[in-house]
Amino acid sequence: RVSIINLFSFLGEINTCIQASELAVSLDALPLNEIPAAPELTEEDARDLDALCLAKSHFELKEYDRAAYFLRGCRSQKAYFLYMYSRYLSGEKKKDDETVDSLGPLEKGQVRNEALRELRVELSKKHSAGELDGFALYLYGVVLRKLDLLKEAVEIFVAATHALPLHWGSWLELCNLITNIEMLKSLSLPECWVRDFFMAHMFTELQMIKEALQKYQSLMEAGFAKSTYIISQIAVAYHNIRDIDQALYLFNELREQDPFRIENMDTFSNLLYVRSMKPELSYLAHNLVEIDKYRVETCCVIGNYYSLRSQHEKAALYFQRALKLNPRCLGAWTLMGHEYMEMKNTSAAIQAYRHAIEVNKRDYRAWYGLGQTYEILKMPFYSLYYYRKAHHLRPNDSRMLVALGECYEKLSQQVEAKKCYWRAYSVGDVERMALLKLAKLHEQLNESDDAAQCYIIYIQDIFSCGEQLEHAEVSTALRYLGQYYFKNKLYDEASLCAQRCCDYNDAREEGKALLRQISAVREQGEPSSTDLSLACVFNPLINTTTPVRRASPLDLSSVTP
């Protein structure tokens, strides 16, 4: 454990070093006699050691050109990796320096690292000769990915995981290139305990949350129960399925175990934002500023705080600051798109969402945001395309299905719209809007029986959740059902609906008018209908036998962080 962590640290792979160290701390300490000896230096390593130490000092000071200069004649594999890695990072630094002052973050992706093509040629020759170790293969894969040679990059990253299974950076890069479960299953990955962490991470990315939680549970039972990394990933998984309470609980537990942790705190702030927990979000923002105000996560948390206070210009400013620190920060691109949407700047929002998709094509929030933006621009065909993409990534998310249904409705494809609304209800309607929209669609198409059934289930669903939703249109449903029952001569049911209409200001007069109509009909001695086909339309306020899908009510219509 110690030797591999030291190796990662020495070669500048700090993120992998932190990951390995966190996992090592969660395990029981080894007795002294079981700690393996450090690997012996090869003759080439010994010859290059002084130059390597000098170059490493310049590397840590971000003097990448100087580091590469002192390593140019070295032959060991460690020196070669650090030499090539320094040249790569030098190109990245120069690219950022060219853009940071002259261009905003939206144009940042237009500038290229000029060193990439040269690095690719050199690494390709070494690879053909079989002279690249696990670290150099990782760098070769990064270069290919930066050049958009994605198929070749996947092959190289798979080779890197075989050559050095404990290098988490290779696994993460591979994760970003896998688009679906079929592609994941087709890869020949090494049999190693790190593979279990990778599979759990991959399941989370592919929205296969049940499988991800099972994998993380088995890892905790295998000895990693104290791992803060696993706790954070489980919290992220619950965040992805909108189990807000469980996710908040785990993030609070994580903060107790690691109070100075900044990783994943942007996700924690998303949850606080959704719950409108202003004091908690304010405390988190101030706390992170005290720890490190120049971290990407800190900027995102502050941005969420200002967004919750409806100060959208300030929020966008902090998301831009996050992107200056890391142009590949997925969350910042998406959240900045949301802020531009709030400011009615649709062109900037579209650019932000497109950049988010460039970073990660699996980000359903960006696809969904593009759909919303084009919907505002009254371009339903474009909206339909992007909503379909979002639905493909989140097939069981009712919000995507409702959005699809609305698009189909605007395009006069009522049959498809009805399918989407019913599917949204079947998978668990988060916003409890699907049945209402379906009922109104049936009403427009003069399908009165179907509309009545939908309104009935809608009313039961609203009352079963135990609280009134802001958008709840119970009075609309009661008005329609009252008239429906009256037309079908079910006067008792019509009377009950009319009485309940009187509880709502916007339906009170219509309820009273309907009660007068029912009284007049009864005075004339007209009997109620006994039609069995209508009797099956159960009483919406008494019958509780109809199964209803329950979900925590969340208002996420304006933002999906």
General description of the model:
The protein is mostly helical and 561 residues long. Helix content is 69%, strand content 0%. The chain is built from 30 helices and no strands. Keywords: Cell cycle, Cell division, Mitosis, Repeat, TPR repeat, Ubl conjugation pathway. TPR repeats lie at residues 296-329, 330-363. Belongs to the APC8/CDC23 family. One of its GO terms (cellular component) is anaphase-promoting complex.
Q: Specify the helix fraction band.
A: 55-70%
Q: Identify low-pLDDT runs.
A: 1-5, 532-561
Through-space gap between termini = 37 Å
User: What percent of residues are in strands?
Assistant: under 5%
Count the E strands: 0
Rg of Cα set: 29 Å
* Helix and strand sequence: HHHHHHHHHHHHHHHHHHHHHHHHHHHHHH
Q: How would the global form be characterised?
A: elongated
User: What structural class do you assign from the helix and strand content?
Assistant: mainly alpha
> What is the average per-residue confidence, as pLDDT, rounded to a whole number?
84
* Biggest sheet architecture: none
Determine the number of helices (DSSP H or I, runs of at least 4 residues).
Answer: 30
Oligomer state equals: single chain
Protein name: Cyclosome subunit 8
Pathway: Protein modification; protein ubiquitination
Pfam family, one: TPR_11
InterPro entries: APC8, TPR-like_helical_dom_sf, TPR_rpt
